[in-house]
Each structure stands twice: as C-alpha cells, then as structure tokens.
Amino acid sequence: MLSIQNLNKTYPNGTQALNNVNLEIHKGMFGLLGPNGAGKSTLMRTIATLQIADTGTIDFDGIDVFNQPEELRKVLGYLPQDFGVYPKVSAEMMLNHIAKIKGIHSSNDRKAYVADLLNQVNLYKFRKRNLGDYSGGMRQRFGIAQALIGNPKLIIVDEPTAGLDPLERNRFHNLLSELGEEAVVILSTHIVDDVVNLCTNMAVFNDGQIVVQGHPQELSNSLNDKIYRKRIEKSEIEKYQSEYTVLSTYLRSGNMNVNIFSDVHPGDGFEVVNNNLEDFYFYSINQPQTV
Ligand SMILES: Nc1ncnc2c1ncn2[C@@H]1O[C@H](COP(=O)(O)OP(=O)(O)OP(=O)(O)O)[C@@H](O)[C@H]1O
Asked: What's the CATH class of domain 2-214?
C-alpha cells in the first residue's frame, strides 16, 4: 500500500503545488484526475523520488520514500508525462541496455526478458525499428515496457494517453489494467473517460489538494438527480450561466448543450443526466467548463 501523509510543496516562485495531501492507495488502478496545473505531475514526481516535498511523508509497503529513495526505485516503474528517446536506437537495444543497468547480467536471460516485454506491449515485430520512427502510441507502449523492467510493485503513469488514437489508447488501457492486477498503478490524467474505463478508485485533485476520493461509480452516482441537460442556442450560453450553476457547455451533433447542477428539477425543458463522472468532476473542481 502507498500511504501519503501531510505532503506540502511550494516552488521557489511561491506556487504551492501540493497543499497538505493525504492519500492511501491499494493494489489496483487508481486514477488521479485534475485539470492542468493542479499539481498532479508534482505529486507523481515526488512519489517517484525525483523531487522531495517540503513536509510530509510517503510510505510504500514499509519503505520510507524520502529516506530510502534507492529502495523505492527498486520497486518503481515510472512513465513520465514527457520522456525523450534516442531516435537512432531500436526498442530492443534500448530495453536491453536498461535491463542491464537494472541488474539482469546474463545476456541470454536479458534477451528472453526483453523479448517477453516486447510481446507484452505488442511491439515485438517492431523491435528492430528505431525509436525515432515509432508512432505516438508505440512510443507510449515502449515507455511502459521500460517502466516494467524489474517487475515493479508501484507503477506511475503520468497523462499517458494524450495524443493517442482510439485504437492505440484501447491497447494501452488493456495493458494498464493487466498491470493493475499485480501492482499499485497510479494513473494521472485529465481525461475522465480513462478513469471511468480503468480505475477502481480515484481522487480528484485541484489547486494542490485532494478534493474528493472514492469509487468512480459511487462518486458519479452521488450526484444522481442533481445534474440536468438541455439543448440551447449558442447565443443563450451567458443567459444560462447567469441563471443556473452551469457545469459544462458542449456541442453534440453540432447542437449546443448545457449541463447544470440543481438540487431540484429546474423544469424549463431540462432533462436529468445520471451516472456521469465528467459532470461530477466539473462539479468537484467547481469550474464551469466548455468541452
Ligand atoms: N519547477 C517548477 N517551478 C515553479 N513552478 C512549478 C514548477 N513545476 C510546476 N510548477 C507549477 O506548479 C503547479 C502544478 O504543476 P504540475 O505540473 O504539478 O501540475 P499538473 O497537474 O501536472 O499539470 P499538467 O496537467 O498541466 O501537467 C503549476 O502552477 C505549475 O506552473
């Protein structure tokens, strides 16, 4: 289990990126959902021992992350938001190199291990291709392969599906959910559907704070009969914003729609929308959104 207590981090420019963060995360897929700038990457980098917090503690299965970073790194797999690749090196060569660094010394063992990894992420037939010639999705799957070396018990993936086409995204999701059966997997994202599809538990993160946490389905159900939708004219958006608590405005089949929060049925042509994590998310970060 990963246990985070009273974590605070203020950057030298005065930005408070982590504000008394407390979280307990068990085996399985955990979604950390928050808007850009919420502090998700700061939290991920801190757990991954790449930076330290000003105050607080992180414990993973008895490892004190700030005092035993080397121990944590032995069980950590980390796919950062942006990672560079050597463009003229093949996936096979690169994984072989990383496996060597991670302590798999026999070249035969390494060869078998790397082949297995490449199969797992569905890249075996592209193993000789240079990383610079990989598509975005292939690069992400390569990123996961490198993160998996050494059978990590804690896997952190930071906004992994931005820029992937639906097929690649689907493949990537399948891979992540398999990993969640054996390890603690933290998925940091601003894509609500990724959390709906993959995660058994989640937290909404905003302004450096955990706003709410729980099971995605239960959280979205908590707003049942409180979210209402209506098709409107584009010119009416401001009117609705002044009259209602607007959660989102969005186009569907070319028509403008508005979703609002209301404790009682507002009448006025609105219809109820239930089980919608996206609206729960917008409600919990308390910002009107245009999607
Ligand atoms: N090295 C830094 N120095 C100063 N401010 C920083 C630094 N890194 C991040 N920040 C600021 O801290 C806040 C949190 O940033 P962070 O990257 O952790 O958020 P995020 O939720 O991952 O956002 P995104 O989804 O855009 O990556 C932002 O206001 C950001 O500008």
From this structure: alpha beta
